[in-house]
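Why run this: before we spend reagent on co-expression, it is cheaper to look at a predicted model of the complex and decide which construct boundaries make sense. The entries below are exactly what would go into the expression plan.
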Amino acid sequence: MSTIARNTDPESDPRVKAVFDDIRATRKSDFINNMWHYLAFDPALLESTWTEVKAVMATPSALDPLVKEMLYIAVSVTNGCTYCAHSHTAAAKAKGMSAEQHADLLRVISLAAKTNQLATALQLPVDPVFDADHRP
Amino acid sequence: MSTIARNTDPESDPRVKAVFDDIRATRKSDFINNMWHYLAFDPALLESTWTEVKAVMATPSALDPLVKEMLYIAVSVTNGCTYCAHSHTAAAKAKGMSAEQHADLLRVISLAAKTNQLATALQLPVDPVFDADHRP
Amino acid sequence: MSTIARNTDPESDPRVKAVFDDIRATRKSDFINNMWHYLAFDPALLESTWTEVKAVMATPSALDPLVKEMLYIAVSVTNGCTYCAHSHTAAAKAKGMSAEQHADLLRVISLAAKTNQLATALQLPVDPVFDADHRP
Amino acid sequence: MSTIARNTDPESDPRVKAVFDDIRATRKSDFINNMWHYLAFDPALLESTWTEVKAVMATPSALDPLVKEMLYIAVSVTNGCTYCAHSHTAAAKAKGMSAEQHADLLRVISLAAKTNQLATALQLPVDPVFDADHRP
Amino acid sequence: MSTIARNTDPESDPRVKAVFDDIRATRKSDFINNMWHYLAFDPALLESTWTEVKAVMATPSALDPLVKEMLYIAVSVTNGCTYCAHSHTAAAKAKGMSAEQHADLLRVISLAAKTNQLATALQLPVDPVFDADHRP
Amino acid sequence: MSTIARNTDPESDPRVKAVFDDIRATRKSDFINNMWHYLAFDPALLESTWTEVKAVMATPSALDPLVKEMLYIAVSVTNGCTYCAHSHTAAAKAKGMSAEQHADLLRVISLAAKTNQLATALQLPVDPVFDADHRP
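The model came back. Tokens follow.
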């Protein structure tokens, strides 16, 4: 089920084909997952989304690629995004996440959700020392 | 402002004192942040929360301590937890997070929030290949 | 799957029948979607929910009906509500949302999710000029 | 309070100055709100964020500028983003949102939150007719 | 700070005065909290909100008044609503919530947030026996 | 679908078997729901999660067992957790939740979501009287 009909021949549009070609080249795989098939209903939205995902996730940066995938999982799970939890867990495994790291990831993100709930329930005042603007 | 009155003399309770002593010893610092001062209204809740935070965050495990702090930030920000965003960003900086890593963290978690929104809006069907149970 | 058993003969209850009749009359359609079939387990809850939905969504007001549906989609997607994302996207299309408007809606709500994440991560202080109470 | 120290002389960096100049020119105002002052700690992040905000929010598109601001409010409120609720409500007023439209916006987004909660609590099955892929 | 200017003389409007009088009579108190002062900018929204709050929260029903306040806290904290966490915690205390009950409430809602995160991260399939529609 | 492969013979691991035995003894039932089958991929995570769930939910405390289940539902629904909404609604029914109580629960948690949205949209200032630290 989806809210947009899946295009049955997306690559007949040259802008879509160019993005799909770049996804295949970047990932060194022929597989194009549903995210891109469905975004293809609007080539401009497909292009801008892929350009940003590629720049942030597939380009060397200050954080390790696997760490970036785990951060993606943390946000996706907290937002309750079914598709994203699946796709980014699969991606993290493909990038080498071990079962031990996976269990540790679950431990951290579930503990964070728990203490977030406590801090919000208590409406904790922020310790002044945590303020980046006013630290002496 | 808070929903619980801050105890003005929490360490008069020996169970609270024991937890506070362990926090100081574990962190090698005299500073006890508000989370623990306010949880002290219920010594059992204080003990169980600290025990779990120490086990997950202050014990060597499959993930690097800084990575765990960044995951904590990712969840806390997605949950909109003001106190937690402050305390864990401060903790990540104390563990060596550079400005470049901080900017990269922001790029990843904000992109994740964006694509979560797209995937949920499109109600994307999960690609069968992502299913851990049914992969051939 | 659901947490309440679907009533197989809801209209045998006159209060349910009255609501269903009003839904059909208001929408000029015989179709009653699952929301109302399941809420029928408690006629009072069904009545109060339909009364409010009709007053807000099916009554002329300061905002255009299509704009109201798109706002409904924005909230539903942000809350991760599968049923609501589907039903309100279908409703928006029935009220004339074009593919271009749909793509634009996705662009705005995904950008909002992204900058929300940045603002919360940075814990941005609110500019005093934004305060409705204290603007000079 | 914030998690990043506010740069006291951001425009000494030519990349920051270029973005700030474009913000002033686009908005025809000298006022630069805190979002941009704080993002200035990382010029690349500032540039990419402003470029996207300008493209989506300050460029004519399929949706009316005021509608886009109201959608932004809907997402920001649902995400509980304090800064964003303030800044986008101020922006919507600047674009002409009347008190009647504001009240109507509140009615729609609060009703949506309510029925989202009901639909999720009931775990309503999606009516097949809502599926864009399988509609006959 | 707020997004609506607080009306300095709300009771000059007879519809507002009628609601405020009913709040005072229902609660047997002269105190009117900010929620109602700010909603007074739109008398119709004020009326409909108060009518519903009174019907659900101040009318005897299948659940105990204190239980209803604790459920309100659970939702408010999970949504990260600062105002609501404060106002409903104060209301629960006024209705007799003890420190032990408060600590227990925190234990349950923080554990729920933690296991929600685990279930979503694992994308657990729902056990067929949990389905209300298909239980044999 | 899930992100972890379900272990087909979890009780071959003595740590898993011990937890499963305790779940069966505590609940006086042979049924082990999916949460525990999937967590079994990491025996330490399984143990710590079950230990906490048992301590909070299956041990007499200041709140009634059914109230605790309803609080669990409130958090789970607000977080949009499909599995948890199902499992805890089933548990609440097993503990005696009537249809009237269920409808009342839905009324309270959906109203809370609605007024949370209003309070956040208005960015209501917290009434000083609600502050536990500063009440005279």
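The radius of gyration of chain C is 19 Å. Chain C has two domains: 9-59, 61-123. Bring this page to Monday's planning discussion.
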